[in-house]
Design a protein that fits this description.
Layout (H helix, E strand, L loop, with lengths): L6 E4 L2 H11 L2 E5 L3 E5 L6 E6 L8 E5 L3 H10 L6 E5 L5 E6 L5 E6 L14
Parallel strand pairs: 1-4, 5-8
Antiparallel strand pairs: 2-3, 3-4, 6-7, 7-8
Length: about 120
């Protein structure tokens, strides 16, 4: 099994598309009510769906080995962060921001700890 995509609800499609393009994602489907992006590395995608009252309780994570440099580049483009890259107790380095519709986004780097933390369940 493989995760196909995650779809985020948004209030304003044009603003959301511009935001995610600024983060570096490639727009591959563009309609007034739906947009889909390819991630710049790997073959993952995610999409946006125009909703009248967007509500999302999920946190979306995007991984990048050069996290600190990526955050610096995004800040230079006007992206605002609520948390700059921080080493977390669970061994991930994370920065936090919100998209124009209030979806919580974490940019992170976890290295080997993403799939193999010291507390991983032993099978």
């Amino acid at each position: 099994m493989n995760l196909n995509q995650v779809t985020l609800p948004v209030a304003h499609m044009k603003n959301a598309v511009t935001f995610y393009q600024t983060l570096g994602f490639e727009l591959i489907v563009d309609t007034p009510h739906y947009a889909r992006f390819a991630c710049p590395m790997g073959d993952s995608t995610f999409s946006l769906s125009l909703e009248e009252n967007p509500v999302n309780g999920a946190t979306i994570y995007f991984e990048h080995a050069e996290l600190d440099n990526w955050v610096d580049e995004l800040q230079a483009k006007g992206i605002t962060f609520t948390q700059l890259p921080t080493d977390e107790r669970y061994l991930w380095r994370e920065a936090v921001l919100f998209d124009p519709s209030g979806n919580k986004i974490k940019l992170y780097w976890a290295g080997v700890n993403r799939l193999n933390p010291p507390w991983r369940v032993k099978n």
